[in-house]
Write a structure and sequence with these properties.
By secondary structure, this protein is mainly alpha-helical. It has a single domain, classed as Transmembrane di-heme cytochromes, Chain C (Fumarate Reductase Cytochrome B subunit), CATH 1.20.950.20. Helix content is 65%, strand content 5%. The chain has eight helices and two strands, in the order βααααααααβ. It has helices at 14-38, 48-78, 85-88, 94-106, 118-146, 152-159, 179-221, 225-231; strands at residues 4-10, 233-238. Helix 2 packs antiparallel against helix 5, helix 5 crosses helix 6 and helix 5 (118-146) packs antiparallel against helix 7. The relative contact order is 0.15. The structure holds protoporphyrin IX containing FE. Residues 27, 30-31, 34-35, 37-38, 55, 58-59, 62-63, 65-66, 131, 134-135, 138-139, 141-142, 145, 193, 196-197, 200, 203 line the site of protoporphyrin IX containing FE.
């Protein structure tokens, strides 16, 4: 058994913490707006203007979400060692680390980590992949549905009828469009919408799981996980496994 010590360590750097809370806020808002879009009829929202406005608000929040995600993806290559993908994405030696952690967990004295524990690393990868799927499918639908950047102008060009200025096309208005090309775009955008909605359900499940596991780990294993995402500091009572890299 390792020596008992109550020690504070600097773990999460400022960009990682800012990413976490901007991501948290934008995802909650996106889910809220997404659910409003899904249940607009039940909420009495029927006018085309209101429908488009909901989508525009969702997409504008989506841009903040995507930019924040992009910064975090890059930060995973330049940030401190706990923020780096090389320390998060399972690679060589991961299976042994995971089995060591699970054994200690079963024995009732889980190993402590400064960065994510081995299960947390897996969770981060699944969450990040889901967020990337949401970003890509959302940006495509923003282009096909309301001709918004970054793909909107190229979709407008694809569906504009001969001699019509693509910039003059309006969302949910067939004026100036070529019906065959619109049909083709409709077929193209369908799967993106389906993936967007199914992944958002999966993400809602992951968020609930994430919160439950963090609260449980905080209670059973300590470490101040939640406050560490504000202060950047973890307080551990046993020597962490990843103290020296
Ligand atoms: C975690 C992030 C996100 C979540 C949880 C989310 C959630 C949702 C949900 C629940 C819907 C409703 C689907 C429907 O009405 O059929 C939706 C639709 C939509 N989302 Fe997102 N979204 C996210 C990110 C984004 C991003 C980044 C963009 C673009 C910048 C975006 C653009 C759209 C568009 C254009 C629609 C309408 C698609 C349609 O009518 O089928 N979303 N989103």
């Amino acid at each position: 058994m390792k020596e008992k010590l109550l020690k504070q360590y600097q773990v999460w750097d400022a960009p990682t913490r800012i990413f976490h809370w901007v991501n948290f806020t934008t995802v909650i808002l996106l889910i809220f707006m997404g659910l409003m879009m899904l249940f607009k009829k039940d909420m009495g929202i029927t006018s085309l203007d209101a429908k488009v406005t909901l989508k525009i608000i969702h997409v504008l929040i989506g841009y903040v979400f995507v930019l924040n995600l992009l910064v975090r993806l890059v930060w995973g290559f330049v940030g401190n060692r706990f923020a780096r993908w090389s320390n998060i994405v399972p690679g060589k030696g991961y299976a042994a680390t995971l089995s060591g952690y699970l054994t200690s967990f079963k024995q009732g004295e889980p190993q402590q980590f400064l960065g994510h524990n081995p299960l947390g690393r897996l969770a981060v990868v699944v969450i990040m992949l889901s967020l990337m799927v949401m970003a890509v499918t959302g940006l495509v639908r923003a282009g096909t549905d309301i001709y918004y950047p970054p793909f909107g102008s190229s979709f407008a060009q694809q569906v504009a009828a001969e001699g019509v200025d693509p910039a003059s096309l309006k969302p949910y208005d067939k004026t100036g469009t070529d019906s065959a090309k619109m049909k083709a775009m409709g077929e193209f955008k369908g799967p993106f919408g389906e993936i967007h909605i199914y992944t958002s359900c999966f993400l809602m499940f992951l968020i609930l799981l994430h919160i439950m596991v963090v609260v449980r780990t905080e209670i059973k294993e300590g470490g101040g996980l939640v406050s560490a995402m504000f202060s950047g500091k973890k307080t551990l009572e046993r020597e962490p496994e990843d103290l020296n890299g």
